[in-house]
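ingest -> fold -> write
write: protein_1
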Amino acid sequence: MKNIKNILGTGAFMLLASLAVSSCTEKSDWDIDSSYSRPFGTDENGIGVETDNKVARATVTWSSTPSTDYYLIEISPNEMTDETPMGSDENDSQVYGNDPANRITKSPYTIDDLTANTTYYLRIKSVSGEKESRWVNYKKTFSSVKEEAILNIPSSEDLPQGQGKVRMSWEAGLAVDHFEIVATGSTDVTSRDISSAEVAAGEAWVENLKSFTEYTISIYNGNTLRGSQTVTIPGLEIESTISDITANSAVFSWEETVDVDEYACVPSTEGVPESGTKLSAEDIAAHKVTITDLASSTEYTAYAFANGSICSRITFTTKKGKPTDYDESLTLSEAESKWSTLSGSILITIDSDITFGEKTIPTNVTKILFWGEGETQPTLTYTGEFNFGGQLQEVEFYNLNITSTGNNILINHNSNAGSTDVLKFTSCTLKNQRGLIRMRSNAKPAMEIQIDDCIIEDLGYYTASGSGIYGIIDTSGSSALTTVTFSMTRTTFSPSSNAYATGPLIRFLKTQTVTTTIEQCTFYKCVSGQTLFRELNLATLKISNVLFSGSGLKILNKADEKPATTVGSNVYVSSDCKLSNTWDNLTINEIPMSTDQIFTSTGTEGLNLIYGADVPEQYKIGDPRWNK
């Protein structure tokens, strides 16, 4: 038994020894016969792919293999097997490294011409001489960026002001061949080819664009979109002015630094025009043009063009057209000669400076308009006061410089027999007066007062013996007047420096139901102790786009006189103006600039405010006449 075990053991040992010898002497594929040998393939676990988040590209990494001359990389949106031929058109595959001029000799390798939003399969082969390894497949798939964004955001240097062009840039060498340009709101597409030199440089100028216009610029390679940017073309901003405004015309002028060759003037509601009217040689040389055929009482925007691009714009409102529907149209001297017999609707034309005594508007007059004729305001100096003899529908003062010779109130009504439904001051200068409107009685329970496009200066221009300022409006003495509608729009108020001129500017009776609107108004150099509102208890106050400046102002006479309803927005105050007696429902924003930093006042004839050069656009609020 023991011998049998020895024999079996010896046989097993000899068999193992024989196998070992056979294994040591048999050659591998690499060494046996060079005609059948192949290089080692890369390690499939060593293959990695990293994609770009802006460009449809991928960077491939792999483990290098010994004695390898170059590598082949194949990608396809379809799965590849050992039976899939290399570069198969049916499989829509792409092979990299097969061109002798573009061999892949080491890791990593970047593939730049992928299709966006596509999932790919990948495999790698090692090549040594004429021998190739087997394909080694990437274990995963990879996806290119969903949407390419190769265009850089243009900088300020890429957008020269007033030149109607933009420099677009991208990574140099990327495959692109043209731009497509579309203005926002348009369906017209402009194509612009990209040269080989521009491709190599990675930048190109897109020209012949309109200033102040937004464009979407897209870059393509054939039909493949590779990125887009939206840009606004900056215009060359030059100063322009509007002067000599009438009901139907205005003079538009501009700086001499630019050769303006076209202009346009359109109602502001119509938007920005694409082109203008050619200027004559005379207008170009004069740097101004007279615009005609305008509608009265209409807001327009005038545009100046240079080389097809807008270089300036300015908004203005034409004056009111002289009405023709009045029963009588008279000169002031004609009206005075038969004053007591006037009746119906009366238009009185004032075309030169005059002095006017105390007047009671006759009982039989239903409507009266004091019309200031001409581009400049005729001065009406009154020595007495106006009141209403009968029950009028409307009283209006238009385009007049109204001033007082003494301690007078312009409208000082104290008669139960008289009234007017509507009282208007339009495009007037009102100055050197103790007060504008004082209602001590009224024949009717309701009244509307409108002040628009006016300058109010030096209220309270009186001596110490006077009994007080009556401000812009005072209805506190009329208990018969129960409903008041008051509006002040596009107006500037500048108080008197008189020490006795610090009473309330707008005063009602606390039992009156009041609707007050203050919009687009500038209160310039208010003085401490001045009060804006008194007795707003039953009022609805609408206040917006208003600027307070100066040393100080009490918004309310007393804190408990706040309005029943407040609707406010864009109310600002200069840093040196201390406001008091405000309330929670009225938000007031401080401008970090003093009154003198916000404005300069120039000229000797009338108030003329100019915004300082450093005032940001958002602070140029209040009366729009100063924001040119």
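write: protein_2
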Amino acid sequence: MAADREADGMSLHYYRARWHGVDYVASPEPHSLELWIRLRSPEPADGFEEVEPGCHVRPVPASECAALHFVRTVCTWRGERFDVHGERDGRLLVEYLGGSAPAAVELGLERVERGVYRLWVPRAEVTDLHEHAEPLNVGKQHF
């Protein structure tokens, strides 16, 4: 796992970049001719600028990154797959990934908008809580 994600230890969705053999929390930064990636480190590192206490940033061209992933937290609740969008007071805000409106209604989920169903559920009822890292192929992107 990349370091420096959130003060409470759980960041539910973020970008992760591998640069010079190290994984960093990252954010894409489109420039006029190519995509850059802003790397973040909680510790001082060569070429990183401290932007606030405990947060050091270094922008690098995406082409210099060995890998870029979009990482999200997923789980299973009542036998169905969910994205996790929040955590509070021992509960998780889960968003249904199943794609079936009737099944979502049967699960007691709240419709947020068309095709989007969410619900706060007790964390103890959730299983298989883990990060899923989706590789992004940024290649040599030009804008």
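write: annotation protein_2
The chain has two domains: 13-65, 73-129.
Residues 13-65 form one domain.
pipeline exit 0
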